[in-house]
Amino acid sequence: MPVLSLSPDEPFSLDLTLSCGQAFRWERDADGWWHGVVGDRVIKIRQKNATLTFEGGPSPFIRHYFSLDTDLDAVTTSFDRDPFIHDAILKCRGLRLVRQPAWECLISYICATNSNIPMIKRRIANIANTFGKPLEFEEKTYHTFPDHASLACACTPALSECKLGYRSPYVLETACDIEDEKAWNDSIAALPYEQARRELMRLQGVGPKAADCILLFAFQKYEAFPVDVWIRRIMRDHYIKTLNNDSSLTGWEYDTIRRFAEKHFGKYCGYAQEYLYASREG
């Protein structure tokens, strides 16, 4: 099997990267091997110290997907501005943001609203198994994530079988609204963050958090700072003491948090968000 040796200035933790909730189609077996579908590839990968052993794609693909071409130390140094985030950086050293396929990321985060990670994984697996193309790997069948045309042409009963709940019409309408997947991808990538965010929120089922997750994980717009209940709690307890203790997150609070984060953590505040999230307790 191919191997990729990481240099001392390339900190990377495969386990942290794939278990921190940014991507939903990876599973780890008892022997430490991760299996996941990325585009039309089934990737099998394991890390031992500074060596990655993998199958399913060439080394440049692995390096690109796991952002191994990013100077991670420079990124984390840029937002290492207070003791709390410093501890998170030390605790989660090697955590990187993967580069997710944009269309799959969009639908994944529409399916992620008001859900926990196991439920999100089941929904996405149901969509792939129902509408995706089969991929055979090590005597097991995986499935690609379906393109927008496959979902746009989906009949409502078949989509309902994926158990998406109230999200089913959002997925269907979004698939129908995007006429050309590549053109959509290119247009969002070319826009500055705030404008791209507004464009994403025009789509059915895409609210502020989903838009920020999509921009961060699929479009590498690192100034995006997704806010969920965990991040809100962290920001309230350690950074913005004036936030309310109410259970609901208002639009004003969301904007207050993300604008504070961009000012405090800088242009890689989205990376800081993932370190805060991955290091949380509870």
What key attributes describe this structure?
282 residues; alpha+beta; TATA-Binding Protein; Endonuclease Iii, domain 2; Endonuclease III, domain 1; 3 domains; 5-stranded antiparallel β-sheet; two-stranded antiparallel sheet; 15 helices; globular
Give the topology.
Blueprint: E1 3-5, H1 14-19, E2 26-28, E3 34-38, E4 41-48, E5 51-55, H2 59-65, H3 72-79, H4 83-91, H5 102-110, H6 117-131, E6 134-137, E7 140-143, H7 148-152, H8 156-160, H9 168-177, H10 181-190, H11 193-200, H12 208-217, H13 229-238, H14 251-265, H15 269-278
Antiparallel strand pairs: 1-5, 2-3, 3-4, 4-5, 6-7
Helix pairs in contact: 5-12, 11-12, 14-15
Give a verbal description of the structure:
- The protein is built from 15 helices and seven strands.
- The mean pLDDT is 94.
- It is an alpha+beta fold.
- It has three domains: 3-69, TATA-Binding Protein (2-Layer Sandwich), CATH 3.30.310; 71-86 and 221-282, Endonuclease Iii, domain 2 (Orthogonal Bundle), CATH 1.10.1670; 102-217, Hypothetical protein, domain 2 (Endonuclease III, domain 1, Orthogonal Bundle).
- The protein is globular, with a radius of gyration of 19 Å.
- A five-stranded antiparallel sheet has the order 1-5-4-3-2. It has a two-stranded antiparallel ribbon with strand order 6-7.
- The relative contact order is 0.13.
- Helix content is 49%, strand content 11%.
